[in-house]
Design goal:
Blueprint lengths: L35 H11 L26 H6 L20 E4 L33 H9 L5 H13 L4 H8 L5 E4 L12 H10 L8 E7 L2 E4 L8 H9 L3 E5 L6 H14 L3 E8 L14 E9 L1 E6 L26 E5 L4 E4 L4 E5 L6 E8 L5 H19 L25 H16 L6 H15 L7 H5 L8 E3 L2 E3 L10 E4 L5 E6 L2 E6 L13 E5 L4 H10 L4 E2 L8 H13 L3 E3 L7
Parallel strand pairs: 1-2
Antiparallel strand pairs: 2-10, 3-4, 3-5, 5-6, 6-12, 7-10, 7-12, 8-9, 8-11, 13-14, 15-19, 15-20, 16-17, 17-18
Length: 593
Amino acid sequence: MDGLQPSVGQLRRGRVRRRRQPQSHSGSVLALPLRPRKVRRQLRRHGASRVAALRAPAPPGEDSEDSRAEPTAGGAGAALPSGPAAAAGGDTGRPRPPRAWGWPRPVPRPSAAAPPGTLSGPQVDEAGGERPRDSPLQRVLAELNRISSSRRRAARLFEWLIAPVPPDHFYRRLWEREAVLVVRQDHAYYQGLFSTADLDAILRHEEVQFGQHLDAARYVNGRRETLNPPGRALPAAAWSLYQAGCSLRLLCPQAFSTTVWQFLAVLQEQFGSMAGSNVYLTPPNSQGFAPHYDDIEAFVLQLEGRKLWRVYRPRVPTEELALISSPNFSQEDLGEPVLQTVLEPGDLLYFPRGFIHQAECQDGVHSLHLTLSTYQRNTWGDFVEAVLPLAIQAAMEENVEFRRGLPRDFMDYMGAQHSDSKDPRRTAFMEKVRVLVARLGHFAPVDAVADQRAKDFIHDSLPPVLTDRERALSVYGLPIRWEAGEPVNVGAQLTTETEVHMLQDGIARMVGEGGHLFLYYTVENSRVYHLEEPKCLEIYPQQADAMELLLRSYPEFVRVGDLPCDNVEDQLSLATMLYDKGLLITKMPLTLN
């Protein structure tokens, strides 16, 4: 995961807007005020409510008694043959080891040396072979296809990903704090997600470019080398580099693999942050990358073979929850690992930003793993950094105290050369600054900045993957087709009696910009990061309450005739625009008019 970066394509214009110009509307440049009281009345009238993430029951046979083994000091110790020992109920003065979940396993010490897809998943892999029909992954994807709420689907898939660790415990005690090892002893757990056969097929059939989509790297004698030749990564070149001891890193596999796309598209709603991935194939008895830390939360899914991992805590407080990835470290820069283990297929390793890590293959066995990454630059500091300039601008416009001039003589007692001065004028100056900074909170456009970050997340997101139900009840399921020289089955329309809700929970966000309202959405995003510019529809002021009702009422259905618009024309215009764009589903299939 040496600097996990998705590939970026050429940007193309693709913004969708209505032609009619809206009436001007007063309000913040960033946030157009809506009418929440009217919306709340409509929510109470129709009993609409947001459905929280629920823990879905596990499918039969997925969580056996064996896989529910609770972590013990012995289990953690087994995964740490040369790391610090676990302390039971006390502080030894050493960092606590990460929790190891599932079956403890003895670990050897190292030797010296498109349009939206369907959630049920493809039945053939990227190489054209048949997917395993009854792997744990295929079972959970089939289960997700039966869950109506996208938020519940995201919660269930994350629960499956980290099982048997309870999600509540993970977020409360481990997220951003500890490295976590999940040992499953189930080599088929991720079967069907990605394989070396998939990688070979992608090299043969896709336009994979060295440096943009594929990296070849090795770490020998404490030095990392990147050996990317120019041009396309044809199989002959890629596999020759692999034979020469290079690890192959496929960037953004979700652009090539439908299953990886489905996996990430569901999980991004769980994190509320972009979910990306890389795939790493390492030849036997080699190491591809130098020790380093990343600026993302990392989930390592071992897919094939075995790999020895060493994970280290941040060395100094400034590396904790790092904002940028580190340079390469030498072995002399590292202390004792907090975790040392060999991952086998089906195992999971999680570590937070700033945790140094390195991995190598041994014993004549290759390794294939996928790293799921999220939470890049998604911190309180990033949020406040966006708030403060706007708060200062608003304060200067609205409060005369921020516009008063500085004391004429302030340079006589302020600045580094006066930092030890006891001048009372200096004390008064510092107090004035503290008072003004405290007042900034009254001018902070917190909701407007939250909307802008949500807009950015919509742009970052993968396009949604649909369940069979969502496809059948949306525009994607209409029976319109070309037959006998003409279109047939044309004429299905929404009416005021039609009941609708948003296609999924996190696919759209309404944002006020420049006195106008825009609805940004994900359904036309590319699987390649930021290949397209953000897509949006303009929402007119007289339809704002209706749009907010639809966004907030998911997954409850709302009758089109009950949308809080001034007239039927606005109700049908809004609902039809959203349905035609693929943003709404109906309670019942539309009938031909």
